[in-house]
Structures are given as C-alpha cells and as structure tokens.
Specification:
The chain has 7 helices and 9 strands; from the N terminus they run αββββββββααααβαα. The chain has 296 residues and is an alpha+beta fold. Among the domains are: 57 residues, no CATH class; 122 residues, Tetrahydropterin Synthase, Chain A. Strands 6, 7, 8 and 9 form a 4-stranded antiparallel sheet that branches. β2 and β3 form a beta hairpin. The chain starts with a helix and ends in a 27-residue tail after the last helix. The C terminus is likely disordered.
Length: 296
C-alpha cells in the first residue's frame, strides 16, 4: 500500500515537472525564455528564439510567446477619420491604416525596449502622417492640396512609410509593411462647392445630350423629308416625261388633235357643272354669257 502511494506521488511530481519544463509554440509565433526576468541568450549573446513546436526548458524559466502575424492599427479608435492640416491650410479629413508585424530577429527589442511598443507605434504613425500631409506640396497644374493629395495618394503613402519604417524597426522591433490611406475627404464647405459643381456639370451634360438627340432627330426628319420630296419630284418628272413622249408620238402620227378632243369630251362629260366664257365679237363690250349644264 505504501509502495502504491509512493509510485502515485512520484508520477504526479513527474507530471508537474513535465508541465513546468515543456512549452509549445503555435504556428506564426516565436517564443523567448526568461530566467528571473532576464532573457536567455546563446553563446554569442543573442537572445534565443524558439520556432513553432514543443520545446523543453528549466522549470523556473518562463516562456513568452510573440505573434509574428501581420497586424494593423488605425489613426483613431473606431476607425474614424481625423482632421489634418494640408500645406495650403486646408483642413482635410483623413482615415488611414498602418500594417505591421514584429520582426523575428528583434523580439527582445519589442518586448524590452518599450513598455507599450504598440502605443508608441500608434503615436509615431499619427505624428508622421500629420507631418507628411503638411509638407506635401503642389506640382504642375494642381489647384489645391486636396487635389494633389487625391492625385498623388500613392506617393504620400510611400513617403509616410519611409518616414516610419526605420524608426519603428530600430526602436520597437516592428517592421512596417504598408501605409494605407483609406479616406481623404475635403472640408465641409468644399464638399458643398464640389457637390454644386457636380450637379451643374450633370445638368449641363444632360442638357447637351437632350439637345444633341433633338438635333439628330430633326436632322433625320429633315433628311427623310428631303428624300420623300425628291422621290415625289422624280416621280412627277418621270410622269411628265412619259406624257410628253406619248404626246409626241401622237403628234408624229397626226392624231394629237383627235386625242385632245376625245380627252376634252371625257373630262367635260364627267363634270357636274360646266362654265364657258364667251367674248362677243361686236364693237360694244358685252358681259360674258354663262351657260350651265347639269349632269344627267
């Protein structure tokens, strides 16, 4: 019975020792060991780092795990924009994001050289972004700082990244990956002006489009009318030419007078009422006599 209790006690002690003497590092992370608050170093004096997996340590050593995954911070809690002053004095609303990760070879700097490195990085990001906006000048035909910032946003991102990257790595062990400008809005008074300009441009474009459409429709209508009138004139011309040819043929055969008399008789025979003007041959002027004949 005593032997069984002793074995159980030794097994429990072994489990506790194993728990204290082993640690696991997850994927995407590294770990360092501290003994009584000091980093464990190798023979060259470099802080030892442990890659993902199971590792052993002294029971009194403490393992600290640091994630190497990419993270990001915004200019303001809640991802809201802040106001910055541009080079021409314009107040611009800006929202940006800083993407970074802890450098695997500078974990000791990240853990020991600053009490809260992420808070320091946040302040460095805001200060440098404000400075870059204030120093960003106009180029060429750019009318305002807002126009310049919108047109050359990539250039501003690269300048801000360059101003932060070296200091962040040296002071905090953080490698800055990128600076993303998510939002650049003009001041409220400029927004109203821009909206008015956009509205005016939209109305002008709509008016031009309507005018062009109406002009096109009128042009097509005029072209169709000209084509119809030309066709009618050509038909009438052809009809006249045909009649002229037929009349010439009748004249050549000496029957033109008979044809005219017959056509006159047909026309007069089909009329309801016929008016004839007759001029007297006497020397005195007599009014014209009117003879009316009703169709039977």
């Amino acid at each position: 019975m005593l032997t069984l209790g002793l074995i159980s006690g030794l097994g429990l002690v072994a489990l506790v020792v194993f728990y204290l003497a082993a640690f696991r590092v997850e994927n995407g992370s590294v770990a360092v060991l501290t003994v009584f608050g000091r980093f464990m170093r190798d023979r060259n004096g470099t802080v030892q780092t442990f890659s993902p997996g199971m590792h052993g340590k002294a029971p009194w050593a403490k393992a600290i795990t640091v994630s190497l995954a990419e993270r990001s911070i915004s200019l303001k809690p809640g991802n809201e924009p802040i106001e910055v002053l541009a080079s021409d004095g314009t107040r611009i609303k800006v929202n940006a994001r800083l993407r970074f990760r802890v450098e695997s070879t500078s974990v000791s700097t990240f853990l020991a050289d600053a009490k809260d490195p992420l808070d320091h990085l946040y302040g460095l990001f805001r200060a440098n972004l404000r400075e870059q906006f204030a120093r960003f000048g106009l180029v060429g035909n750019e009318l305002s700082s807002y126009t310049a910032l919108r047109l050359r946003m990539h250039e501003l991102q690269q300048k801000t990244l360059g101003a932060i990257a070296d200091e962040a790595l040296r002071e905090y062990g953080i490698r800055v990956v990128a600076v993303d400008l998510l939002q650049i809005d003009p001041p409220d008074e400029l927004v109203d002006s821009l909206n008015a300009v956009v509205t005016a441009e939209s109305e002008a474009n709509a008016l031009v489009s309507r005018t062009e459409l109406q002009s096109t429709q009128r042009t097509l209508s005029a072209e169709q009318a000209v084509a119809i009138a030309s066709a009618r004139a050509a038909a009438q011309e052809q009809e006249i030419r045909t009649v002229g040819v037929e009349l010439s043929t009748l004249h050549q055969h000496g029957v033109l007078r008979e044809y005219v008399e017959r056509r006159r008789a047909e026309v007069m025979g089909g009329s309801r009422r016929l008016y004839l003007n007759h001029t007297s041959t006497s020397s005195s002027t007599q009014p014209a006599a009117k003879v009316a004949r009703s169709e039977s």
